[in-house]
Amino acid sequence: MSCCAPGAETALDLASSISVLPSSQEVRLASRSLGGDLHQSDLSVPTVHCAACIQSIERALGKLDRVEAVRVNLSTKRVAIRWRGNEVPPFVAALGRLGYEAHLFEPETGEKDKTLSELIRAVGVAGFAAGNIMLLSMSVWSGAEGATRDLFHWVSALIAIPALAFAGGIYFRSAWNALRHGRMNMDVPIAVGVSLAYAMSLYETINHGDHAYFDASVSLLFFLLIGRTLDHVMRERARTAVNGLSRLAARGAIVLRDDGTRDYRPVGEIEPGMQLLIAAGERIPVDGKVIRGSSDLDCSLVSGESTPRTVATGETVQAGTHNLTGPLTVEATAAAKDSFLAEMVRLMEAAEGGRAHYRRIADRVSALYAPVVHLTAFLTFLGWMAATGDWHRAVTSAIAVLIITCPCALGLAVPIVQVVAARRLFESGVMVKDGSAMERLAAIDTAVFDKTGTLTLGQPRLVNASSVDPAMLAIAAEMAAHSRHPHSNAIATFAGFASQPKLEAVSEHPGFGIEATARGSTWRLGRRGWAGWKARTGGESRYGGTVLTKDGIIVASFVFKDALRPDARAAIEQLNNARVSVEMLSGDTGAACGEVATTLGIHHFVPALLPSGKVKYIESLAKDGHKVLMVGDGLNDTPALGAAHVSIAPATAADVGRKAADFVFLHESLSAVSLALDVSRKAGQLIRQNIAIAIVYNAIAVPIAILGQVTPLIAAIAMSASSLLVIGNASRLQGFVPDVPRRTAPPDSRSHTGTLTQPS
Amino acid sequence: MTILVYLIPVALLLGGLGLSGFLWALRSGQYEDLDGAAERILIDRDERPER
Question: Region labeled Disordered — which residues (chain A) (predicted)?
C-alpha cells in the first residue's frame, strides 16, 4: 500500500498469504441483481483505511467499462460496485493492481440491520420526548401552578405517547415474551414501572394533581435505549469484521460435462458423479475421488495435519482441503449436504454446549430483583391502607416505589460494562460476537487448545536457513516463488539476499517439486527421492526431506517446522497464572503433539483425535463440572467449539468455525486469548460492582418512597445520578491495561471517537 | 399566559424538525459509514471521478 504510513495497517493482514482471489464466476454468483442488467457486487477490502485509499479505489474502478458506481465504506471496509451486462468487469484484478486484496464475504441477512435502525430511531424519538418533557417539568418544579401546570402536564402526556408506543414497544415486547415463557428478565420491571408511572401521571393530570412522572418514565426509556443501542452497535461491528474475513470454503466449482462443455455451478448444485475441475489454489468443494492429475493438498483445516498430503489418481479428497500445486479432475462422491463440512455442522448442532442453558447475569439478577420490588410496592400499598385508609395515597406511594426502583442503573449496569470491554478488545483485534460470551469466559477453569493452526500457525517455517549456503538459498527462493506449496512459501520468504543466475523453464511437478534450468544445468527443489536422483542417501527425514539439487546432486537441504504462534508460551503461562488448566487436543500424531506440548509447557494432551472424540472429551470435562474454553481453528474443531462453554477462533479458522466461535481474534499473536480472559474477568468484576451500586442506591431511595416523600424532582435526580455513577464506573475499564506481556501492537491510527461507542 | 399558546407549539415544532431531520439522515444512509465520512473531507472534489 503506497498511500499509507507503515504500521497503519492494523489487523486482518494475517490471512493474506493463504487466501485466494475470487474468480469472476464466483463474483458473478455472489452479485445481486438490481433489476434489468444492473448488478451489485459487494467485496470486502480489509486493507482500505484512509482517504487516499478511498479515492484511488473509487477512481480506478470507476474508469472500468460497464461499472456504473463505486462506493467504498470505510467503517465496514467494503466496496459496493454496480455494474451492467453479463460479464463481470475485472474489478478484483483492478483492485489487485492497486495493491488491495479483495474477497467475497458471507452476505448478511437483513434482519440485524433492521434491529439497529429500529433502536436508533427509538433513541431519537425517546430523546426528543425526554428533552421536551424535561423542559416542561422544569417549569412545573420551579413553580408553575394551576391552569399552567395542568397545561404543561397535558402537553407532556401527549409527547410521551409516541415515545412509549415506539421506544417503549421494544421493552414491552421483550417483557411480554419473557413472561409468556415463564421467565423473568430485566425488561419486566422496566415495562411495569414505565407504564404504571404513565398511568398514574395521567390520572393525576385529569384530577389536577401536583405530581406527574412523565419525565421519569420517558427519560428512563431514553437512558436504557442508549445502553441497548451501544451494546448492539458494538456487537454489530465485531460481527461485520468477522463476516468480512475472506471466505475459505469454495462457493462453487467448474463442472465438466460429458459433452466437454464446462460451466461454473454453485456448491449446492453439485451432485455425486459430476466431474469437477479444481485448479491449483482452489479449495475442494465436495468429497470426491481424483480421476486425473496429481497434486499436494493442504489438509490442515480439515484434519489438523500440518504436512501437506500428496494425492494421485484414484485417491479420495475431502471437502474443504486446499489444492496447492497441480490441477485435478475430481469426481464428486457426495453432494455438499452429505460432505465432511456438512457432517461437522451437524455434529456441532448436536453438541449443544453450556451456552444454551446459560442465563445472563442480568436475567439472574432480575429474577431475584423484580419479585422483591413488586412485593415491596404491594406491602407499601397495604401499609398505607392500614395506616390511613386513604386509597389514593396508598396507590401513589406504591407506584412511587415502583418508579424509584425501576432498574435504570441496573438495566445499564451490565450492557455499559460490556460495551466498554468489547471496545477495548476490538481495539486489540479481538472480536466479541455475543454479549454473554464475556460472562461465560470469565467463569472458565479449563482451556482446551487445538494444535495445528491454533497453537501453531499451521504453516511451516524454514528453521535451518542460517546453515544453508546463501547462494543456494537465493536460487531455492527464486524457484520457490513459483509454487503455492507451503514449503515453497517458507523458502520464498528468503528471496533477494544474493544475486542469482536467471532461471529458465520453471515447471512444477505436483507431488514432487519444482524444476528449472539455469546456465545449462538442471535445478530441482523438492522431495529428496525425486530431486536428488543421483544421490543414494534415500530415506526421508521427518519433515519431508526437501532438498535443492543441481543436476541431480544435492546442494542444500531444508528443514521445516510448523512455527508456534507468537506469544504462545507467554499466553499459556498467563492462563496458568489465572488458575486455568491448559490442555491440548489434536488430530495430529502423538510425536508432533508431544514436541509442541513440551515447548509450551502443556502437561496434558490427547493426540490423534477424531472430531467426535474432541466433542466427547469436552463433554466429559463439562460433566465433571468444569467450564471449558475451546480454542480451535479447523473444520475438525468446529463441533468442539460448539460443545464448549465458550469458544475462541483465530481469523484464519474455517468459515463455520469462525461463525460458531464466541470470540475471533485477528492478530497472529496468541496473547489475544489471555487478553480476552483478563478483560472478561475485569468486566465481570465491574458488573458486580455496578449491580452493588444499583442496589445500594435502591436501599437508600426505597425507604423515602415507602414513606411517600418522593416527588418527581427527587425521582429524576436520583435516577440520573445512579445511572451516571454506573456509567462512570464502567468507563474505568477503558484505561485498563492487562498484565499481559504484550508485543508492541501497531498503534491504531484512526480515532474511533466519531462512532457511537463512547458513552456520554 | 396566552404567550404559551403559541410558544409551546413553536418549541415542539422546532424539536420535531430536529427529530425528523435525524430520522431523514438515518434513512438516507448517512450513518452507515462514519469513518469514511470523516476521511472523505480530505478528498478534493475536483479530482473526484464523475459518477
Answer: 738-760
